[in-house]
Amino acid sequence: MTPAIRTVGVCGAGGTMGAGIAIVAARAGFATLCHDQSAAGLERAAQQSAGFFGKSVERGKMSAAERDAVLGRMTRTTALADLAACDLVIEAVFEDLQTKRALFGELDALCPPHTILASNTSTLSITEIAAGTKRPDRVVGMHFCLPAQLMKLIEMSPGLITSDATFQAAWAWTEACGQIPVRTQDKPGFILNALLVPFNNDAIRAVEAGVASPADIDTAIKSALGYKMGPLELIDLVGLDTQILLCEAFYPVTLDARAACPPLLRRMVAAGLLGRKSGRGFYTYAGDKMFGA
Q1: N or C of the chain: less Cβ packing under 10 Å?
Q2: Do the Cβ atoms of 67 and 58 come closer than 8 Å?
Q3: What pTM does this model have?
Q4: Is residue 122 annotated as part of the catalytic site, yes or no?
Q5: Could you confirm whether 114 is annotated as catalytic?
Q6: Among 91, 95, 155, 233, which one carries the catalytic annotation?
Q7: Cα–Cα distance between 75 and 86 in angstroms, integer?
């Protein structure tokens, strides 16, 4: 029997995705432990989260008391061992199979048997990540969408050994958070990135070929297709370096030429143009407020 999920841990909570996932959990009433190796990253994320909720109060979407209650449910730690107190641990570190597998191995040794280990991977195999543990039946894919604090969709992917009880418990938790889960197979890219990685690369290649400016390409896509965010705006939010990792994870297993990394993308990353987190990508940004704040 799977115990109720009361306490949630987020690995990589000093980053944009992890910080957003922590907000989702705390906002839904769960005690949330934010973990990152970088104390500075956690502090920055905490300030951004406070700013995000502060803006929500200004807009009348929540009261000051509700804001304080949510922030009070979020605690920070750089000690991985502290996650042993969690019923659900969600990993949101960068897209590298060996890094994720090693982290899951450490969590497997630290956390009690009932703890569900979830990966926010957007491209990698849940089954292969779970292979780093002795509890593959307790590992599940939970891919949030950026910005996690605003987007409702979560792609739920069971690995080959994931138990029905684990999957259903994780699914129920996403619904308790007010999110919208969809079930996907454990295949590269799941639903979103199987479509988005090639599509976003097409937009980059259009810039590289001089078809139009990033702003005009995004305006065309948003105006004609009704998207809230253009592909180049999205890449800036995700991070140009992350887009490279997605290409490198997705292309070798699909051999889809559209998923191969565009040369312009590699040049921009080499120049330090990583998107919002560096202040410049396809666009230029001022400040480091959380998206939505």
Answers
A1: N
A2: no
A3: 0.86
A4: yes
A5: no
A6: 155
A7: 12
What confidence score (pLDDT) does residue 188 get?
Answer: 80
| Candidate list 143, 157, 201, 233, residue with the active-site label | 143
| 193 part of the active site | yes
DSSP per-residue codes, 63-102: -HHHHHHHHHTEEEES-GGGGGG-SEEEE---S-HHHHHH
The reply to whether 143 belongs to the active site is yes
Find the catalytic residue in 120, 122, 125, 163: 122
Give the per-residue pLDDT at 1. 45
Give the closest residue to 3 by CA, choosing from 166, 174, 183. Answer: 166
Q: Which residues pair with 90 in a beta bridge?
A: 10, 118
pLDDT tens for 151-204 read 999 999 999 999 999 999 999 999 999 999 999 999 888 899 889 999 999 999
Quick check: 3 and 27 in contact, CB under 8 A? no
Task: Delineate the domains of the chain, giving CATH numbers in brackets.
Answer: 7-183 (3.40.50.720), 192-278 (1.10.1040.10)
pLDDT less than 70: residues of the chain: 1-3, 288-293
